[in-house]
Amino acid sequence: MNTKKSDARKFLEKITGGPVTLGKLIESIRLGDDLSQAELSKKLKISRSHLNDIEKGNKAVSPERAARFAKALGHSEERFVELSLQSLVDEAGLKLKVAVDVA
After folding, report:
1. What whole-number distance in Å separates Cα of residue 99 and Cα of residue 82?
2. What is the mean pLDDT of each run of 10 residues along the chain (103 residues)?
3. CA 80 distance to own-chain centroid
4. What is the pTM of this model?
5. Residues 36, 97: Cα–Cα separation, whole Å
6. DSSP helix/strand/coil, 74
7. At 44, is the secondary structure helix, strand, or coil?
8. Region of residue 50 (left: phi > 0; alpha: psi -120 to 50; beta: else)
């Protein structure tokens, strides 16, 4: 794993108080870009309330939608899909770690 990414992940986990989730990642991108939920939801083509639910971890995001969000935000599809799949695995109560690589 790239050390820079590992350091960034550790930093994000430290400031968010836990493991990185897709919702936390999207929220940190939004805040880093100084966007309101309304502005980002328009960019992602979802409602503001749906974005809020994603950021708070109340709504799951499918891998397909995660990839679309990544493209819209100019970020890694692999990371967004990995976090989406990890959320599904965690919700199922499985003690597994998801890793996604480009095919």
Report:
1. 6
2. 63 76 95 97 98 96 98 97 97 96 90
3. 5
4. 0.84
5. 32
6. coil
7. helix
8. alpha
